[in-house]
Specification:
By secondary structure, this protein is an alpha+beta fold. It is built from eleven helices and six strands. It has two domains: 28-99 and 144-311 and 363-475, Up-down Bundle (Outer membrane efflux proteins (OEP)), CATH 1.20.1600; 100-140 and 312-345, Single Sheet (Outer membrane efflux proteins (OEP)). It is elongated, with a radius of gyration of 38 Å.
């Protein structure tokens, strides 16, 4: 009877310890994001970004070639993919601890003992042959320590995979942004070169007028200042275009070779029919948010493993095999042997090392929760800002195009009046300057529309698919 009582007490103690080791199932933290977006009115037939791959969204052949080269050769993406393979391998290593490992070994030992040490005045020769299968230190995972470590490794692998997908989508958008910026700079350079030539002609005409006494020195200085100011703007734009090309080369990673003909800035299509969807559905499907949640799951599992370290560990070592003084009789029935060695360890005093490890795991979990909430809030703000920009840029472009027409007509009127002598040179130069800035503004707004569209496509979860990724790898 006392023996049964002792067994019951031990069983109850182990059950209580097991209960103390549990951290509970993972629960997604509650989110405070609003239920809908502002300014989300859309035309009929609006599409979700996830319904379009990047080749469908970006239809410029030259841009497609640049994106393909980037996805195949970008060094940052290659590092991210290598990180995925590293965490995948680490997950396999950790998962292997959940099953026993068996090693096969065989030895043959032959030794001679000199006669002086045998006590029989005759030398003795001994031979020992062994073959064994050994299961080394397999842990019975009563408290889930090994299972939690395996779950943490799996979450780390999946998080790195989602992070690489997020980087892939970001790279697609970055290449598009640089490409649209290059097109903008090309257009502005054309406008600026024409303006430089126009101002040079104005300066030359006024300079001849000064020489003939028909124009004032102040008019010449004004024309020269307008000319040199535009020349300075031209040099700045040329430098910006060179910097843009360098950034594109770094992003692409490898020169793509001969590129197909691309479209001009005004020929690029802008999709304003992407549906924003329900915030929770869109945000929780983004790769960066998925990666943040997986990192949180990893931290949650690590807490469970750290708590299980306070509990007893039961390790099993077993071996079976054959041993014989003769190699010919090694596998005889009488030569079989076996060994079974269970071992239990329980931390009693480690100067706070185990408790410290649990504290580290808890702190990292709290950090992962905060990081997850931050990523969600940033994702919501990014999409909300882009939806607002999309609506504002449509109105801004319409207003700029109307303003541009007005300035073109104003310059024409001023030039006619100047030739007839009813308008001054200052009025003509003012009209030229206003038209120049209106032309530059119209090009910039067009580029902003394209960039906002590509960024919104990326923010809503478009740009990547497993099917497309496999196609890119095959073409690469």
């Amino acid at each position: 009877m006392p023996r049964q009582v002792n067994i019951g007490i031990v069983t109850l103690s182990l059950a209580l310890l097991a209960g103390c080791s549990q951290v509970g199932d993972y629960q997604r933290p509650s989110s405070t994001i609003p239920d809908k977006w502002q300014k989300s009115k859309l035309p009929e037939g609006a599409l979700k970004a996830t319904q379009l791959d990047w080749r469908t969204f970006f239809q410029d052949a030259r841009l497609q070639a640049l994106i393909t080269s980037t996805l195949n050769h970008n060094n940052d993406l290659r590092i991210a993919l290598a990180r995925v393979e590293e965490t995948r391998a680490q997950y396999r290593v950790t998962s292997a601890d959940r099953t026993p490992s068996v090693n096969a070994s065989g030895t043959r030992t032959k030794s001679k003992i000199p006669a002086a040490f045998t006590g029989t005045d005759q030398p003795t020769t001994t031979e020992r042959n062994e073959f064994s299968l050994t299961a080394v230190s397999f842990e019975l995972d009563f408290w889930g320590r090994v299972a939690n470590m395996s779950e943490a490794a799996k979450a780390s692998f999946l998080a790195s995979e989602s992070a690489s997908r997020a980087m892939r989508i970001t790279l697609i958008a970055q290449v598009a942004d640089l490409y649209f910026t290059a097109l903008e700079l090309d257009e502005r350079l054309i406008i600026t070169r024409a303006a430089v030539e126009s101002r040079r002609r104005n300066r030359d005409i006024i300079q001849r007028g000064v020489q003939l006494g028909a124009a004032a020195r102040s008019d010449l200085l004004m024309a020269e200042s307008a000319y040199y100011s535009t020349q300075s703007e031209l040099a700045s734009l040329e430098n910006d275009l060179a910097a843009n090309e360098h950034a594109m080369q770094l992003l692409v990673g490898k020169p793509p070779g001969e590129l197909p003909q691309g479209r001009r800035l005004h020929e690029q299509e802008v999709r304003n029919d992407l549906a924003p969807g329900i915030p929770s559905e869109v945000i929780y499907a983004r790769p960066d948010v998925i990666a943040a949640e997986l990192r949180l799951k990893e931290a949650h599992a690590n807490v469970g493993a750290a708590r299980a370290a306070f509990l007893p560990r039961l390790l099993l070592t077993a071996a079976m095999g054959f041993a014989s003084p003769s190699l010919a009789k090694l596998f005889a029935p009488v030569s079989g042997n076996w060994a079974f060695q269970p071992a239990m360890s329980l931390p009693i005093f480690d100067n706070g090392r185990t408790a410290g490890a649990e504290g580290v795991a808890e702190a990292r979990k709290n950090s992962a929760v905060a990081d997850y909430e931050r990523v969600i809030q940033q994702a919501f703000r990014e999409i909300a800002d882009l939806l607002s920009s999309r609506a504002a840029l449509i109105d801004q472009r319409q207003a700029t195009e109307s303003m541009l027409k007005a300035y073109e007509e104003r310059l024409h009127v001023m030039e006619v009046r100047f030739k007839s002598g009813s308008a001054s040179l200052i009025e003509v130069l003012d009209a030229q300057r206003d038209l120049y800035f209106a032309q530059q503004s119209a090009v910039q707004i067009r580029r902003k529309q394209l960039v906002a569209s590509s960024q919104l496509y990326k923010a809503l979860g478009g740009g990547d698919s497993l099917k497309q990724e496999a196609s890119d790898k095959k073409s690469g």
